[in-house]
Write a structure and sequence with these properties.
The chain is mainly alpha-helical. The chain has one domain (2-274). It has helices at 2-22, 25-46, 51-74, 77-105, 112-136, 138-162, 177-197, 208-236, 251-255, 258-274, and strands at 166-168, 172-176.
Length: 275
């Protein structure tokens, strides 16, 4: 299983890097749209939508995301500002305020259309963030995604080696507090290496502790995203969101930690411009 996971992850990484740095803007938008629509298909299954409602939901999502792509590529930065702030602000509020409470009380909504709305809040801001961060600088997008990947990999191996204390046994029995500690350590090392390789001036090194703390917060959100998808899958009675990726499950199983973190990164970039 581990060998299959590694092979699939390596192929995905190579394809992703090639697309990130080589595709034109339109090609990248099409790729992101395909990812959003695959995620939508998997989410409709988790929301337990029947065939006709699932098709309607898929078409509606496609139309909304096409409108987002048009906005991202045709409006000026000033014209995009309010829709971006609204989209990313709603996403961050959803992940920071609502989802921790959702997980703590163990809420299990059964209304497919309510879950469909939740799916929009999960998927659409993530897709828009992939467009906006890449348009700003592909390295910004890769840097944020790399942080999440490092957290995930570090948590996996630390949990396997040292895991004893369950993080959320009723949601995801395999996750442990030792895995969380491994994720935080891995993220700290990642930030230090990135700062050293980026050629940042020495006067900025004093900010390194603050940057590490911010990265830990990002890693915490990634863990919440992972736990939330696990809770939704448990409610739907499935182990994986799909079978698209050998050894990994569905697309949602691979991007669950990115859905809270990419919109936050996009929002932080916008706010930094405004300061």
């Amino acid at each position: 299983m581990l060998k299959e996971r590694v092979i699939t992850a390596t192929i995905l990484l190579l394809v992703f890097l090639a697309a990130l740095f080589m595709l034109p803007a339109l090609g990248w938008a099409v790729l992101v749209a395909l990812m959003v629509m695959q995620g939508t298909s998997e989410w409709s299954r988790l929301a337990e939508m029947r065939a006709r409602p699932a098709t309607m939901y898929w078409v509606a999502t496609l139309l909304v995301f096409i409108a987002m792509i048009w906005m991202s590529t045709n409006l000026t930065a000033k014209q995009q500002l309010f829709p971006q702030l609204l989209t990313y602000g709603l996403s961050v509020a959803f992940w920071v305020l609502l989802i921790p409470a959702w997980l703590m009380i163990g809420w299990k909504p059964r209304n497919p259309w309510l879950m469909g709305l939740v799916g929009w809040i999960v998927l659409l801001p993530t897709g828009l963030a992939m467009l906006d961060l890449r348009a700003e600088n592909p390295w910004w997008l890769l840097g944020v995604m790399g942080l999440v990947w490092v957290a995930d990999i570090s948590a996996y191996f630390a949990g396997r080696k040292f895991g004893k204390n369950k993080l959320a046994p009723s949601i995801s029995p395999g996750k442990t507090w030792e895995g969380v500690a491994g994720a935080l350590l891995g993220v700290a090392i990642y930030v230090i290496v990135v700062v050293l390789l980026s050629g940042t001036s020495s006067r900025h090194y004093a900010l390194l502790p603050q940057v590490i703390v911010a990265a830990w917060w990002w890693a915490g959100l990634a863990i919440i995203g992972d736990l939330f998808e696990s809770a939704v899958k448990r409610q739907a009675g499935v182990k994986d969101s799909g079978a698209l990726l050998p050894g990994h499950g569905g697309l949602l199983d691979r991007i669950d930690a990115l859905t809270p973190t990419l919109p936050l990164a996009a929002l932080a970039l916008i706010l930094q411009r405004l300061v």
